[in-house]
Amino acid sequence: MSTAEHTIPALRSEIPWRINPHHTPELDADANRWAFGLFSDDPRVPVPLRADNYTTWAALCYPDARPEALTAWCRFNALYTVIENKQEALFGTGDAGSAEEVWRGVARHLLRLSHARDLAETPVDGWSDGPPRPYLLTARSIALTMPVGMGRYFLRRVAQMAMAQCQEADAIASPHMQWGEYLEYRHVNFGVPLFIAAIPSMLARDLSAAEWESPERAALDRLISHHCCLTNDLYSFRKEHDDRDGKRAPVQAVTVLSTLHGLSVQGAMDRLAEVIEGTERDYVGLRDTVAVSSEMREYCTRLEHILAGNLRYHQVSPRFHGAGFEGVFTGGEISVAGVPRS
After folding, report:
1. At a CB cut-off of 8 Å and minimum separation 6, what does 224 contact?
2. Within 10 Å of residue 178's Cβ, how many Cβ atoms?
C-alpha cells in the first residue's frame, strides 16, 4: 500500500492552557488500573492504550477540578472509549448490531434516570452488566455532584452523545454532506458538550436564568464544541485511517471538506485549520460582547479551559502521534497509508 506525506498546519490560539495540579502519576495509574479492569475480554475489541492519556485530557480541560472530580472524569473517559472501541471493532461483522445496542441501552437508561424522582436512590437492577454498568454509575456519580437540575441536564447530554454514537454508521456513512450538517452531528458525537454541561456545577456563583437561557450562551457553547471536535478531526486524521485497517474510509472534517469543495487532502487540511482558527475568533468576538457579568466571565473562562486543554491534549498525546511520542506536536508532516496527497 502506498504512503503519502501530508502536513498538518500549526494551529494558532491566543487562549492559554493550564493543567490540574492534582494530576499525578499515581492518579493516572489508579484511574487506568480501575478502567482497564472493566474492559471486554472479547479479543476482537482493543483495549485503549495507556498512551492515550485520558487522565491528561481531563486534567487539561478541568485545571481547577478537585481530586475526586478529576478521578471520576478520568474513569468516565476511559469507559466511554471501550464502548466506542467495541462498536468500531465489530463494524461490518455479524455482531455489529450488538455494539450499537449497547449505546441504545446506555441512552435509554440515562434518559430514564434523568427523569427519576431521586437520582441517588433509583435502582440499577435493570442496568446491563459489562462496561455499560460502570459507565452509567460513573455518569450518575458525576451528576450527583451537581445541583439537581444541572445533574439531570448533564445526564441528558450524555444520552445525546450515546445516541449519536449509536447512529454513527448511518449518520455519517459517506463524506457527501453539507458542512453545517456534518458539524451538527459531529459536535455531539465527540463528547465535549459533556465537559461543558458540567461547568455550571463549578461556578462560584450561578448564571442568572436569563444568562443560562440566552441564545448567546448556547452559541458560545457550540463554538467551543465546534473548535474541539474539528481539532480532533485534524490531529486524528492519520489515526482514523490506521484504526479502520481498510474496513471503511473515515468520514470526518478533512474528507467532508475535500468532497464538498473538490480539494486535495492537503488542501482540505489547510482549509480545516483556517476554519478552526476562525471559530476561535468568532468565539472571542461573541464573548467580548456578552460576558458582562462576573458570572458570565467565569463561565467563559471555564469554556476556554476546555478549548485550550483540548488543543494541548491533541498536541502532546501519543494517541495521535504514535507510541513512544514525547514532546509537543504543533504541526508538521505525517505519513498516511493509502491516502493520496493530491
Report:
1. 192, 196, 283, 303, 304, 306, 307
2. 10
Considering the entire predicted model, what is its pTM?
0.90
Q: Cα–Cα distance between 99 and 84 in angstroms, integer?
A: 8
CA–CA dist 36, 28 (Å, integer): 12
Question: CA 108, CA 92: separation in Å to the nearest integer?
Answer: 24
- The tens digit of pLDDT for each residue in 300-336 reads 999 999 999 999 999 998 888 887 888 999 888 887 7
Place of cell 459533556: 194
Contacts of 298 (CB under 8 A, 6+ apart): 203, 204, 205
Answer whether 197's CB lies under 8 Å from 153's CB. Answer: yes
Contact call for residues 65 and 76 (beta carbons, < 8 A): no
Cell numbers for 45, please give them. 475489541
Grid cell at residue 33: 488500573
- CB neighbours of 86 closer than 8 A, spacing ≥ 6? 40, 42, 45, 99, 102, 131
Q: Which helix (H) or strand (E) holds 63?
A: none
Q: How far apart are CA 227 and CA 4, in angstroms?
A: 27
Query: What is d(CA 339, CA 186) in angstroms, rounded to the nearest whole number?
Result: 22
96-153, pLDDT tens digit by residue? 556 677 778 888 889 999 999 999 888 776 676 666 777 788 889 889 988 889 999 9
How far from the centroid of its chain's Cα atoms is residue 242's Cα? Answer: 19
Task: Assess contact for 222 and 183: CB atoms under 8 A.
Answer: no
Residues 333, 40 contacting (CB under 8 angstroms): no
Is residue 86 within 8 Å of residue 132, measured between CB atoms? Answer: no
* Placement of cell 482493543 in the chain: 46
C-alpha grid cell for residue 243?
A: 484504526
- Please report, for residues 167, 176, 320, the alpha-carbon distance to residue 197 in angstroms, rounded to integers and kept in the order given: 22, 31, 26
